[in-house]
Design a protein that fits this description.
CATH superfamily of the largest domain: Enolase-like C-terminal domain
CATH topology of the largest domain: TIM Barrel
Bound molecules: D-mannonic acid, magnesium ion
Number of helices: 13
Order of helices and strands: EEEHHHHEHEEHEHEHEHEHEHEHEEHEE
CATH class of the largest domain: Alpha Beta
Strand content: 15-25%
Largest sheet: 10 strands, mixed
CATH architecture of the largest domain: Alpha-Beta Barrel
Radius of gyration: 20 Å
Length: 403
């Protein structure tokens, strides 16, 4: 019965911050979990070091479910992004260890593959419609079958999802939050134009997606969804802040554009109402922030009852370890929909050697035992932590808004 001999947190910043939990068993097998929570990295580090790691040492490494219950129920203070990210990291590392000990790629332990490869979407953006259309074309040339498109809003200096660096979008930059200016009125007028131009240029074969990033009111979201219907989006993401889940009834009653929500959720309880009332089409929770593989599988099982499919968040603030774990989940889960895929920088790829690969618009987790992602600790040590915050948003009159 292997026991946990060592667990430690590795913080590295090869271009952006990543927090990785490494667990080692007394028979020398190690597993990794991603514990990165963008802009709140050190809170998770402290939670792991102060409250989780001391309880792990000496535990049986193969009791994944019991460890999950111990960390969730046993904490008394349940849920929340910091706690659930820490639990997610432990869970991922333990699944990695179990699969390595079995000599199998993780997806085999999750029931084997339900498909041959994992459809993914990339991020294209541009300062205006013409630039965004061109950029989507570049993604299609790279082989992507699905592309998320965002473009600048006339009259606003910069907005979510639009970056000067076409290859790597990174919203968390300055140590203190940057302030952006937002106008839903200006935005609402510009988005349908973008998708009309994209369908005109590329036809209806490529899947197109769009992220509203929590900014609209329910009735505005209904209006946007309706305006986008002729362009047959794969999904419209996070149209409103989803704390008010009841409001999705109103959005739904106005549009058949599919809805995707969940990147800021951390447990099945956040998803339950939206899923059970069939108010969304895709659930976007992901491995590190929703309590790991163990909990994400429960969310997917609930979603499957209602024809809701998965669409795991995969922004650059999720490390290659997360992506590895997500791809094993994606390959195995029956109700998979799509996987978000944003490229990491070369520095990040060098710190995290990996088995997963991109090919012709699809991802594959590879056949290495475990989740197939490791960390080069020597290289990681060369990139010390740099404080970085996500921006905040204000309306043109100065009112604080959702970023
Ligand atoms: C996003 C993210 O990928 C997405 O859909 O909404 O870029 C999100 O802004 C970041 O993960 C925040 O850390
Ligand atoms: Mg999003």
């Amino acid at each position: 019965m292997p026991r946990i001999a060592e667990a430690r947190v590795i913080v590295t910043c090869p271009g952006r911050n990543f927090v990785t939990l490494k667990i080692v068993t007394d028979d020398g097998v190690h597993g990794l979990g991603d514990a990165t929570l963008n802009g709140r990295e050190m809170a998770v580090v402290s939670y792991l070091n102060d409250h989780v790691i001391p309880t792990l040492i000496g535990r049986e490494a193969d009791r994944i479910e019991d460890t999950w219950q111990y960390l969730y129920r046993g904490a008394y203070w349940r849920r929340g992004p910091v706690t659930m990210t820490a639990i997610g990291a432990v869970d991922t590392a333990l699944w990695d260890i179990k699969a390595k000990a079995a000599g199998m790629p993780l997806y085999q332990l999750l029931g084997g593959r339900s498909r041959d490869r994992v459809l993914c979407y990339g991020h294209a953006n541009g300062e205006d419609v013409a630039a965004a259309v061109e950029e989507v074309g570049r993604y299609l040339e790279l082989g992507y079958k699905a592309v998320r498109a965002q473009c600048g809003v006339p009259g606003l200096t910069g907005t979510y999802g639009v970056s000067k660096d076409r290859m790597y979008y990174e919203p968390a930059s300055s140590a203190l939050p940057e302030e952006n200016v937002w106008s839903s009125e200006k935005y609402l007028n510009s988005v349908p134009e973008l998708f009309a131009a994209l369908r005109e240029e590329y036809g209806f074969t490529p899947h197109l997606l769009h992220d509203v990033h929590h900014r609209l009111t329910p009735i505005e979201a209904g209006r946007l969804g309706k305006a986008l219907e002729p362009y047959a989006l794969f999904w419209m993401e996070d149209p409103t802040p989803a704390e008010n889940q009841e409001s999705f009834r109103l959005i739904r009653s106005h549009t058949t554009t599919p809805l995707a929500v969940g990147e800021v959720f951390n447990t099945i309880w956040d998803c339950k109402e939206l899923i059970e009332n069939q108010l969304i089409d895709y659930i976007r929770c992901t491995v590190p922030h929703a309590g790991g593989i163990t909990h994400l599988r429960q969310i997917a099982a609930l979603a499957a009852l209602y024809q809701v499919r998965t669409g795991c968040h995969g922004a650059t603030d999720l490390s290659p370890v997360s992506m590895g774990a997500a791809l094993h989940f994606d390959l195995s889960v029956p109700n998979f929909g799509i996987q978000e895929y944003m490229r990491h920088t070369e520095e990040t790829d060098a710190v995290f050697p990996r088995a997963w690969r991109f090919e012709d618009g699809y991802l594959h987790p590879g056949e290495a035992p475990g989740h197939g992602v490791d960390i080069d600790e020597k290289l990681a040590a060369k990139y010390p932590y740099r404080p970085a915050s996500l921006p905040v948003n204000r309306l043109e009159d100065g009112t604080l808004w959702n970023w």
